[in-house]
Amino acid sequence: MNKIQASAPGKLMLFGEHAVVYGHPCIVTAVDQRIFVEVQKKDNHSFSVVAPEVGVDKYTKSLIEIGKATIPRSVVFLEKLYKKFIEKYSVGGGIQVTTRSEFSAKFGFGSSSAVTVAFAKALTKLFAIELSKKELFDLCYQTVIDVQGVGSGFDLASAIWGGTIYYIKPAKIVEQLSEKEIPISVAYTGIKADTTSLVKMVAEEKANNADKINEIFEQITIITKLAKTAILASDWPQVGNLMTQNQLLLAELGVSSTELDSLISVSLLSGAYGAKLSGAGGGDCMIALADQKIKKKMEIELENVGGQVLQVHTGADAVRLETESKK
């Protein structure tokens, strides 16, 4: 094969934000908006990327130089992964990588993780390397650690396993909870959050006030475990109630925002079972769980106060191969 295309889903965190970084469980669901990565072998010794969604018209570097010097943020995960892949499996050669996304990187759907997983999946097929889900996770997770220095890997796991999963890092536990859709609404605040800064802020607060932060994490863990049971039972009123409880703890952690609080409040006043931020906080998206009878009305109210309602479906398929060609 000379050309392979793979795709991976975005994600939404349902429970366990921030606590997951410190070994506590979380629940995350894959969404049906995907990132597509096409990888084509080239008769040269270069690594090229075309990624229009992130402003990359054509990025090229010789294979002997990949992973060295300054790497643009828009291609760093791809370049680091390919370097690691070549070294680990003693394969490689000139390639061109072309990406296409069904969602904007600003929404906090885990675009970096999705593109990393889709690229890794395409490489394994292109070079005939058989990897289990855990082996694929380990390859991608080490790349994320190389780039960021820290990471829980929940977003990688969501892309690799799909559906809705209960997760403890680094894929120590990955338990499939449901492949059915969870009836949530998603609204974007209009503010792109800086996940790295928020994770560092919580780390600093934990270093200065360990007892308080650890107690918050323990309470989040209790809620996450209860939510696992409720999701398995499709008990949506209970899931919603637990979302609101989780949100109160995230607000106490200092990662909510005025915009998130406003959208969450509107959801609850509209009759939602519950609502919370999704992800690192500080902006990005919130989620609300409501009965179908009031869902549309609630979404109109969210739009009226400045939220951008995103039409996504949960429990989406995991990373998959889309096409392959000998050309």
Uncertain parts: none
Per CATH, the class of the largest domain reads Alpha Beta
Can you count the beta strands?
A: 12
Number of domains: 2
* Gyration radius, rounded: 20 Å
**What's the total helix number?**
9
Spatial separation of the terminal alpha carbons = 8 Å
> Mind telling me which CATH architecture of the largest domain this is?
2-Layer Sandwich
What percentage of residues falls in helices of 4 or more residues?
40-55%
Kindly identify the CATH topology of the largest domain. Ribosomal Protein S5, domain 2
Q: What is the structural class?
A: alpha+beta
Overall form: globular
Mean pLDDT: 94
Order of helices and strands: EEEEHEHHHEEEHHHHEEHEE
Strand share of the residues? 25-35%
Major sheet, described briefly? 8 strands, mixed
Could you explain how this protein is built, in words?
It contains nine helices and twelve strands. With 327 residues, it is an alpha+beta fold. The protein has two domains: 3-179 and 315-325, Ribosomal Protein S5, domain 2, CATH 3.30.230; 184-310, Alpha-Beta Plaits (2-Layer Sandwich), CATH 3.30.70. Strands 1, 2, 3, 4, 5, 6, 7 and 12 form an eight-stranded mixed beta sheet that branches. β9 and β10 (285-289) form a beta hairpin. α1 crosses α3 (133-148) and α2 crosses α3 (133-148). The chain is globular. The chain starts with a strand and ends with a strand. The mean pLDDT is 94.
